[in-house]
Design goal:
A hairpin with a 5-residue loop joins β4 and β5. This protein has a seven-stranded antiparallel beta sheet. It has 166 residues and is α+β, with helices and mostly antiparallel strands. It starts with a helix and ends in a 5-residue tail after the last helix.
């Protein structure tokens, strides 16, 4: 019985120590970060941009649900989380999706842009200007998941949606 209590106590101590280290490292990381990804999509720029800009149509090529809330905002549910986004179109073939809300563990914006890449292909870039407020979440976002993981997933889905164009 003593041996079991000793191992249990050691396990709890290791867990507490690990959480403390993760929190300490995460609190030393900057709240703000920038990540980006670029992909050449095998389709004409007009087709690609129509697909990107059609927020209501995103569920046709991404695993998410969209509830449009007018021209400049939408509620998006993905991976069990529902977020409100403000949509901005500051320039042609540029779409900014900005997270709106308080008391979230993260925030920021994605800027989607597209340019012709030649031979009927399109170069799509996503730039994430993100903020991760919680130190533990910040640690995992940086060292476990990577800031670019969601960007890669979105670009993979967009490219795959044009697979029949090749």
């Amino acid at each position: 019985m003593k041996r079991m209590l000793r191992w249990g106590g050691t396990g709890v101590a290791v867990l507490v120590f690990t959480v403390a280290v993760v929190w300490a490292v995460g609190s030393q990381l900057p709240v703000e970060h920038r990540a980006s990804g670029t992909r050449t999509v095998p389709a004409d720029i007009d087709l690609v941009w129509d697909r990107v800009e059609d927020v209501q149509g995103w569920p046709e090529w991404q695993e998410l649900e969209v509830q449009p809330l007018g021209e400049d905002s939408a509620r998006v549910r993905q991976d069990g989380e529902t977020l409100l986004y403000r949509l901005e179109r500051p320039a042609p073939r540029t779409l900014v999706t900005r997270i709106v809300g308080e008391d979230l563990p993260f925030g920021g914006a994605w800027t989607w842009s597209a340019a012709p890449a030649g031979d009927g292909t399109t170069e799509v870039t996503i730039v994430e200007d993100g903020e991760v407020y919680d130190p533990i979440y910040r640690f995992f976002s940086r060292y476990v998941f990577g800031h670019e993981a969601s960007i890669r997933r979105a670009l993979d889905a967009l490219e795959a949606s044009f697979a029949d164009q090749r």
